[in-house]
Amino acid sequence: MVFFVSDMHFGQGSHAEDRAIEDALIACLQAHAHKVTQLFLVGDVFDGFIEYRQLVPKGFVRFMALLAAWTDRGVSVTYLVGNHDPWHQDYFATELGVHVMHEPLLGSAGGAYCCVMHGDGLGRARRGHRILRRLLRNRTMVQLYRSLLPADVGVSLAHRVSRRLHQRRHNPRTADDMRRYAQNVLQQTAAEVLVMGHSHRAELCPWPRGIYMNLGSWRDEGTFGVLDAGIVQLKRWRGNKAALIAEHEV
User: How many structural domains comprise the chain?
Assistant: First the structure.
């Protein structure tokens, strides 16, 4: 079984809020642990995450410990960075055994040929958002930010900016743009399943040329996706069990 989850935005809320979201995700993952062979973290796992050469932001060690335990027992864990957590270096790879990806991933998983990406910066994204995205991924700008600001100041500033951006409601046009983009990808590539996050709107769209699954937001709705033996399922975690939202065969 392949497990997909995105948009936890750890660090966005109070300590109590984040702890509850972390605990729920750990419970969900542990409930599926006997079946999962691959885990995809599809971006915005953290909110305003910045890794320095000798330092990483504190917190969420229980979730990280689970990742390390899973990779130790042979589960493949892949982390595709989003627009709120692109500043990873080598900590997740060297300490946790997690593959960190900065570009979309295309390959076989769960009995299907899949394309997996976070999904920010697509379609008619606002000009300011596109400029900010390029700056956040510019190596020179990232190095200057890390070098010129003390770690406490840099991380605190990133959190403030991220929270300010999240005060705006998610634009419904974003989901429409991502859906159109997904149709183009499925028509123009060999992908049978396209998985994205970012829009915070969970949906499963079966089309003649393939299936588009948006994972929605774990933080907002507890939604996630699984792919097993060519069956794609969108689910929601409710307390101590998963409820099926939709499913389709590849």
Answer: 1
Q: What is the pTM of this model?
A: 0.88
What is each CA distance from 144 to 85, 182, 207, in whole angstroms?
17, 35, 45
> Which strands sit side by side in the sheet containing 203-207, from one edge to the other?
105-109, 112-116, 193-196, 210-214, 203-207
Q: What percent of the chain has pLDDT over 90?
A: 69
- CATH number, domain with residue 43: 3.60.21.10
Distances from the Cα of 150 to the Cα of 38, 157, 224, angstroms: 37, 11, 36
Tens of pLDDT, residue by residue over 69-78, are 999 999 999 9
Under 8 Å between Cβ of 77 and 42: no
Q: Domain residues for 111?
A: 2-249
- Alpha-carbon span 16 to 18, nearest angstrom: 6
Taking each continuous run of H as one helix and of E as one strand, the counts in the chain are 8, 12
